[in-house]
Write a structure and sequence with these properties.
The protein is about 40% helix and about 15% strand. It is α+β, with helices and mostly antiparallel strands.
Length: about 500
């Protein structure tokens, strides 16, 4: 009988999602958080901008609350990968087009440091606290300290706590025929991969053509071992899962990088090698395609954000309800031990544009999403927002309608374990440029245009050029501040 090894802390912590899960209706107020709405503003309009899709749904969920505050919320959607460019263009132009801006926290150094955002501390300190205070101490430390603050001031409120985890088809890993076949082929037990080398073996094993047999069933379409985030935008994060666990550091104290070191190249080669066990169009896979391939029953395992188990539990969109196990992202063996690292890319925070004409109303909209209704927003499958507050982790009942109470408890315990492996994204000024330069070269390597070494040599050269252009001494100062923040919350040593 299949028994997960104790080393897989998240496998033990994340229970298989309940097969009885029901498709969710839009959430209603749970009454867990004690708050008051802001006084009526008399019919002002607050324009909210964010990446297009389900993560803007809360503004529709709570439109009656906004109306009660005399606020009409207008939403502007932009493509997922274009958030930085759209916001930066508007900020530089000073158009005043947006009031509440949703962005990925790696941009906070750029946006706050350049004066594009209002500091929020004065709003937070106002009386009465039930109206104005978003209870920042309730926000988990990595998000509160890294995502919300810059230069000792608060500029943003977290609305989404992202960390990557591994998900796998537990029913396939438990199947006795598959287990026997894997043992015969590889000479070891079939289990969720602990290392990236094991990841390749398991991916190879489960890749099957149409007409082959999988767990006693004849496949009517090809089945694949895994897939990657292959599209330009965030493929760098799927690479850094590997590189960080192989001992690669982004920069040293003097902003010198080893992103093209032998360990870094080995990590990229592993990612390249994975593609032979992925769908042929994997280089077009973004979040949606990667999620849908997994919950649509096309993949044996995947690394994804922690909202995907919620999607997998929803029978209105998932073909694998009750068949999902979750584990730690694999790692490389360093100094005799497997080092696990889980990237924390994206996340979402909301800030107030410095040139807004309605700062108080904009803050009230942001606070309502970030605190007042945050438990409701992260516990539904109708958004991709992930838990980020202690309140979220201690209220499994909110998640129970989707996945059952015991599974909800396991889900939240496992999320805490994932954060222990968390590896922070860059958030110094220039972060978007560094990320894009690396992402470009990762994509060139995945497409076979250049070798892993050539790609990372080009990335290292681009990083040095960016550092010099922005001012090496200034960037060294920012980076050392970032390292202090990372160490303070225990994410790196």
């Amino acid at each position: 009988m299949f028994r997960p090894r104790i080393l897989f802390l998240l496998v033990a912590a994340f229970a298989v999602l309940a097969s009885s899960a029901l498709a969710q209706e839009p959430p209603s107020h749970l009454g867990v958080v004690d708050y008051q709405l802001c006084d009526n503003f008399g019919g002002v309009t607050v324009t909210v901008v964010g990446d297009a899709g389900h993560n803007l749904a809360p503004y529709e969920f709570w439109k009656d609350d906004f109306a009660a505050m005399g606020i009409n919320v207008e939403i502007v959607e932009v493509p997922f990968a274009d958030v930085y460019q759209v916001l930066k263009t508007e900020f530089v132009a000073g158009s005043g087009a947006f009031d509440v801006v949703t962005f990925y926290p790696s941009y906070i150094g750029d946006f706050a440091g350049n004066g594009y955002l209002l500091p929020l501390d004065d709003f937070i300190a106002r009386d009465p606290a039930a109206v104005w205070d978003p209870n920042m101490e309730d926000v988990l430390a990595p998000f509160r300290e890294l995502y919300n603050r810059w230069a000792n001031q608060t500029y943003a409120l977290t609305i989404d706590g992202d960390v990557l985890v591994m998900m796998y088809r537990q029913d396939l890993f438990e199947n006795e025929e598959e287990r026997a076949a894997f043992q015969a082929r590889y000479g070891r037990e079939l289990r969720p991969p602990e290392t990236w080398d094991e990841w390749l073996e398991v991916a190879e094993f489960f890749t099957r053509p149409a007409g082959a047999t999988l767990a006693g069933e004849t496949l009517t379409r090809p089945f694949y071992g895994t897939a990657e985030f292959g599209r330009r935008g965030f493929s760098y994060a799927w690479y850094l899962n590997r590189a960080a666990s192989n001992g690669v550091i982004l920069f040293d104290e003097l902003m010198e990088t080893d992103i093209n070191s032998p360990a870094a190249v080995a990590a990229l080669q592993n990612m390249i090698d994975t593609l032979q066990f992925a769908p042929p169009d994997v280089l077009n896979f973004g979040y949606d395609e990667l999620r849908d391939a997994f919950i649509g029953g096309q993949l044996a395992m995947v690394v994804q954000w922690t909202d995907v188990p919620k999607k997998a539990a929803d029978p209105s969109i998932s073909q694998i309800v009750g068949k999902v196990g979750v584990g730690r992202v694999p790692g490389f063996v360093v100094d005799g031990e497997v080092a696990h690292r889980s990237m924390m890319p994206v996340g979402r925070v909301v800030g107030i544009a410095a040139d807004t004409d309605v700062p108080e109303a904009a803050y009230c909209v942001a606070k309502h999403i970030a605190y007042n209704t945050s438990l409701e927003n992260v516990s539904t499958s109708l958004t991709g927002l992930d838990p980020y507050r202690a309140t979220h982790l201690t209220n499994p009942e909110a998640f129970a309608p989707l996945m059952g109470l015991e599974n909800a408890r396991a889900y939240l315990e496992g999320l805490q374990a994932a954060l222990a492996d968390g590896y922070p994204d860059l958030f110094i000024p220039g972060a978007a440029q560094y990320q894009d330069a690396l992402d470009l070269q990762i994509n060139r390597a995945l497409a076979g245009e250049v070798s892993a070494q050539e790609a990372l040599d080009a990335a290292a050269a681009a990083w040095n050029e960016i550092t010099d252009r922005l001012g090496r001494e200034t960037q060294i100062s920012f980076w050392r501040q970032a390292l202090e923040s990372y160490r303070a919350v225990g994410l790196i040593r």
